[in-house]
Amino acid sequence: MFLPKCQSGSGHKIWLELKDCLALATPLAGAQLAQAATAFVDTVMMGLLGGSVLAAGGLGATLFQILVIISTNVISAVSPLVASAYGAGQQTTVGKILRQGFWLVAGLALPLGLLLWYAAPLLRMLGQDPAIIAIALPYIRAVVWGLPALLGFAVLRNLVSALSDPRPIIVITLAGTLCNVLGNYLLMFGKFGLPKLGLAGIGWASAISLWGMFAALMLYLFSQPRYRPYHLLGQLWPDLDLLGELLQIGLPIGVLAAVETGMFALTTVLMGQIGAVPLAAHQIVLQTASITFMVPLGISFATTIRVGQQLGQQNRRGARRAGVVGIAISALFMSLTALLVWLFPAPIIGLYVDLGNPANADLVQLARQLLVIAAVFQIADGVQVSAAGALRGLPDTRVPLLIGLLAYWGVGLSSSYWLGIRLGWGGVGLWWGLALGLLMAAVVLTLRFLTIPILAAKSSS
């Protein structure tokens, strides 16, 4: 096992940490971008089947993605535990964590799968059109078969990343993206003798590609000699203590993801109450911010791993340095994207709507205003996600959950409502509220990481 040793000179140590963080973050961010591209392509191809199908597919995909975001964040507890065990040289513990991660998948996949399979009553309760639900249900019931593979892939992704081997993730994710696009085409339109499944075909293509990605990463793990010392398939029965530790770390992460997702979802609802133009402008800017966010999200994964590895080596200064470097990289990247958004709003808006069409004039003007706010929003968003990643590496997840509740709902949602609805600032007010919530999260989470006592890593043997 190779881990870089600290050498003399703080500047040299920072440079080494910068290289190590970027070596992890680059493929992880690339994988996140590939997944975002998959969702974008799916949406475009749904549109080829008609407006009602696009609405139904968007409804089903949104429900599926919300549950995936929450569950994969719970599973992300695998990463800091494996990173710490790897740093401490506890090879058998790594295998134990992997196996308990699969038990966690089993515990999540069944109830979530049943919830998706019988989603119609839930969607009706949320006020969705019964005709749209009827179109969406075959898609949901197709894609749900890929849920166990998606969660299993998340466990394996966290494992190999924490073991400083992220390159297969981006290769497999890119291959899965291409297979998903091809599968969409074949199963949507019934090419080469395959059944013409329409919207359900997109769901089946996603499920098949997810199982292919999971199988490919499993084959990689068991074909590489470097993974044999970890005894990945050792004693398969549950280890309740270790499983409990995964849940203790992962549940607050999952709830925090739900809280943050809820902030954006409710802001979208408020935007829809203002009018169609503000909602459209909101979607343009939010989609743009979501794409750029994939990079700091990948950096946050790398930061969790680097902090955990240093903690496992009992290198407390190194753990602190790893977190600071990860936060700084995210801040720098998002500052650059913010500058681009600030200077070149027209080309960005032009990706979504025709700038020359007079009917879009109000939409373009509002989207320009929101992009200015998004410049501030993006910097805060990048810092807060990396600061949260650094804290996970310690692992510290309960207090960040409380900070998130206060920042996202106490500040973000309340100020969005006050500025946008009560003061009549409209979409601009709603977005300033989002920016304020994320800014508070960024400041408080960063201060917590800088001031929290870093304790010696706990063995999970």
UniProtKB/TrEMBL annotation:
<keyword id="KW-1003">Cell membrane</keyword>
<dbReference type="GO" id="GO:0005886">
    <property type="term" value="C:plasma membrane"/>
</dbReference>
<keyword id="KW-0050">Antiport</keyword>
<dbReference type="Pfam" id="PF01554">
    <property type="entry name" value="MatE"/>
</dbReference>
<feature type="transmembrane region" description="Helical">
    <location>
        <begin position="199"/>
        <end position="222"/>
    </location>
</feature>
<dbReference type="InterPro" id="IPR048279">
    <property type="entry name" value="MdtK-like"/>
</dbReference>
<keyword id="KW-1133">Transmembrane helix</keyword>
<dbReference type="GO" id="GO:0006811">
    <property type="term" value="P:monoatomic ion transport"/>
</dbReference>
<dbReference type="InterPro" id="IPR050222">
    <property type="entry name" value="MATE_MdtK"/>
</dbReference>
<feature type="transmembrane region" description="Helical">
    <location>
        <begin position="132"/>
        <end position="156"/>
    </location>
</feature>
<keyword id="KW-0472">Membrane</keyword>
<feature type="transmembrane region" description="Helical">
    <location>
        <begin position="60"/>
        <end position="89"/>
    </location>
</feature>
<feature type="transmembrane region" description="Helical">
    <location>
        <begin position="324"/>
        <end position="346"/>
    </location>
</feature>
<feature type="transmembrane region" description="Helical">
    <location>
        <begin position="242"/>
        <end position="264"/>
    </location>
</feature>
<dbReference type="InterPro" id="IPR002528">
    <property type="entry name" value="MATE_fam"/>
</dbReference>
<dbReference type="GO" id="GO:0042910">
    <property type="term" value="F:xenobiotic transmembrane transporter activity"/>
</dbReference>
<feature type="transmembrane region" description="Helical">
    <location>
        <begin position="431"/>
        <end position="456"/>
    </location>
</feature>
<feature type="transmembrane region" description="Helical">
    <location>
        <begin position="284"/>
        <end position="303"/>
    </location>
</feature>
<feature type="transmembrane region" description="Helical">
    <location>
        <begin position="101"/>
        <end position="120"/>
    </location>
</feature>
<feature type="transmembrane region" description="Helical">
    <location>
        <begin position="399"/>
        <end position="419"/>
    </location>
</feature>
<comment type="similarity">
    <text>Belongs to the multi antimicrobial extrusion (MATE) (TC 2.A.66.1) family.</text>
</comment>
<feature type="transmembrane region" description="Helical">
    <location>
        <begin position="168"/>
        <end position="187"/>
    </location>
</feature>
<keyword id="KW-0812">Transmembrane</keyword>
<keyword id="KW-0813">Transport</keyword>
<comment type="function">
    <text>Multidrug efflux pump.</text>
</comment>
<keyword id="KW-0406">Ion transport</keyword>
<dbReference type="GO" id="GO:0015297">
    <property type="term" value="F:antiporter activity"/>
</dbReference>
<protein>
    <recommendedName>
        <fullName>Probable multidrug resistance protein NorM</fullName>
    </recommendedName>
</protein>
